[in-house]
Every structure is written in structure tokens, then in C-alpha cells.
Design a protein that fits this description.
The protein is globular. The protein has nine helices and 15 strands. It has a seven-stranded mixed β-sheet. Strands 8-9-10-11-14-15 form a six-stranded mixed β-sheet. Strand 4, helix 1 and strand 5 form a beta-alpha-beta unit. The longest helix has 17 residues. It is 34% helix and 25% strand.
């Protein structure tokens, strides 16, 4: 197939999202308001690619949404701000209040809400651990009859497809709480994470949870996607409940595996176990 155009518009057209592969294995995203022909960009570490994607979609960038301060997520902010300024355009730069995001103009915290254009509502979820000010962005269609349908969540390096970010600046309790918060979102919520780590994540998940039938199907699916040069995002919250060992810490299987019924302790065990497994 022709792989020149790697940017993909998600099939859930009620909330148009364009996935843009960046760097080695990062993902940036465009969240589009078709009515106003504007978009927000998530973690635009390579501004040139993000600007090209916006141009292709025929939309103006009005917001930069930064999940956290690490270079491979926030490192493109200043150049993108400058490029837009050179075109006579200003941009709202959103980031977690505790993360010192480059170029930030709007520091946000749990429960803050704002709009992209007129058709997309964004709600901020505090998810501290990977960095102390990490946030996730939960987006829904502004005129959705049912607020609980057809949303998307941008999880940065907190929840991956089948995995979990490192606990660089926080505790297992925090990450457990983050995962339970994300897990409470409607089951059909699309999950757009910060990296293409899925095959490795699912390989560990299969090691920790070998009898999981959904997981076996999921591995096949992910392998086929990658062979075709396609991303494994978006996932859904439902998929993660079925296959992500970090979200499944309260299931019988993972409790038995981690030898604890305490969710945060199981989270700590699974994280350390995955690290040890990865070094083998």
C-alpha cells in the first residue's frame, strides 16, 4: 500500500481526530472542529509535521494541548508558537499547572473545561505520577445528546495501549488512582496515547495474564496493524479493561499474579515486574 500519508483521521467522525506519527515512536494529534475549521494539537513535538497535517485538513491551529513537560511531548511548543506568530496567528497553550510547560498561556487542573471551536468540549483530568503535573484531556462533541458517548481521551504517557508510563515523579498510589479515573470514562471512549509501545506492552501483558482470551485476539490485531504500517491507536477504555494489566490490577488473575488484593500494591508490583521482564 501507499504509505506516504501516515496521518489518519479516526473512524469516529463525530469527533474528528488526526493521528500524526512523530519522532521515533511518538504520536501527536489534531482534534478538529469542522464547523469553525480550527483544531487543537496535542504534544506537537515536530511542528513542521503538525503544520503540514493542519494545512492538509484545511484547519487553523488555535490550541496546543500539552500532556506533560518531557521534551518529546513539549519540546516543539516554542517553535510552533513562533511559526504561527510569523503567520500572524496566536495560539492558546494549555498545560498542567505543576509542569512548567514551555510557552504555556493557560495552566489547567482537574475539572477545568474549555472548547475547541464550537463543536469540541475538553475536560482536564489531573493524572500526576509520570510527571508531577501530567494531565489528560477528555474530549466530547459539544452537541452530543448523550455526554457519555463518542468521546476521546488523550492520555500522554499515563495510559498506553496495553501499558502504563513510568512512575518518574510519583507513587504507585497515584498511578492506581489515575487508572481508576480513566477507567471510569464511558467504555466506548477512544484512547489516544503518547507512544507506539503496544506490541511490547501486550507481550508483557500476555506473560502476566496468559489465559486472557481477549488479549490473544488483541495481540493478533496489533501485529497486523503494525505489519501494515498502521498505528495501534486509538484503543478504547473497554479494550483496556479487557487487556491492560495495569487497569486490571483488581481482577482475580492480576491479584493472584501480584500476590495482593491492594490495587496500588498490585500496580507497584506489575510496574516493577514489567521493568524486570523488559531487561531479560
Amino acid at each position: 500500500g501507499d504509505k506516504k500519508d501516515t496521518n489518519l483521521m479516526s473512524e469516529q467522525a463525530s469527533l474528528p481526530v488526526v493521528t500524526v506519527p512523530l519522532l521515533n515512536d511518538n504520536y501527536g494529534y489534531l482534534i478538529v472542529c469542522p464547523k469553525e475549521k480550527v483544531c487543537a494539537v496535542v504534544d506537537p513535538v515536530e511542528p513542521k509535521k503538525i503544520l503540514a497535517a493542519a494545512k492538509k485538513e484545511g484547519v487553523d491551529i488555535t490550541h496546543i494541548l500539552t500532556t506533560h513537560s518531557h521534551w518529546d511531548h513539549a519540546g516543539g511548543n516554542k517553535d510552533l508558537i513562533k511559526s504561527l506568530k510569523d503567520q500572524g496567528k496566536s495560539v492558546i497553550v494549555v498545560g498542567g499547572a505543576k509542569d512548567g510547560i514551555p510557552g504555556v498561556t493557560k495552566e489547567v487542573k482537574e475539572g477545568d473545561e474549555f472548547k475547541i471551536g464550537t463543536s469540541v468540549e475538553v475536560k482536564v483530568l489531573d493524572t500526576p505520577c509520570h510527571t508531577q503535573g501530567h494531565v489528560c484531556f477528555y474530549c466530547t462533541k459539544a452537541d452530543a445528546k448523550e455526554k457519555s458517548e463518542g468521546g476521546a481521551v488523550f492520555t500522554g504517557d499515563t495510559m498506553f495501549v496495553g501499558g502504563c508510563g513510568n512512575f518518574n515523579s510519583g507513587s504507585p498510589e497515584q498511578m492506581y488512582s489515575n487508572f481508576m479515573k480513566l477507567g471510569k470514562l464511558p467504555k466506548d471512549t477512544l484512547v489516544y496515547c503518547g507512544h507506539e509501545y503496544t506490541l511490547k506492552n501486550l507481550a508483557y501483558a500476555s506473560y502476566a495474564d496468559p489465559e486472557n482470551v481477549e488479549l490473544k485476539e488483541r495481540v493478533k490485531w496489533a501485529e497486523e496493524r503494525r505489519k501494515a504500517g498502521l498505528p495501534t491507536v486509538p484503543s478504547t477504555i473497554k479494550d483496556e479493561w479487557e487487556t491492560n494489566p495495569f487497569l486490571r490490577v483488581d481482577t482475580e488473575t492480576i491479584r493472584k499474579y501480584a500476590k495482593t488484593t491492594d490495587g496500588a500494591k498490585a500496580m507497584k508490583f506489575v510496574r516493577a515486574d514489567k521493568d524486570a521482564w523488559g531487561r531479560r
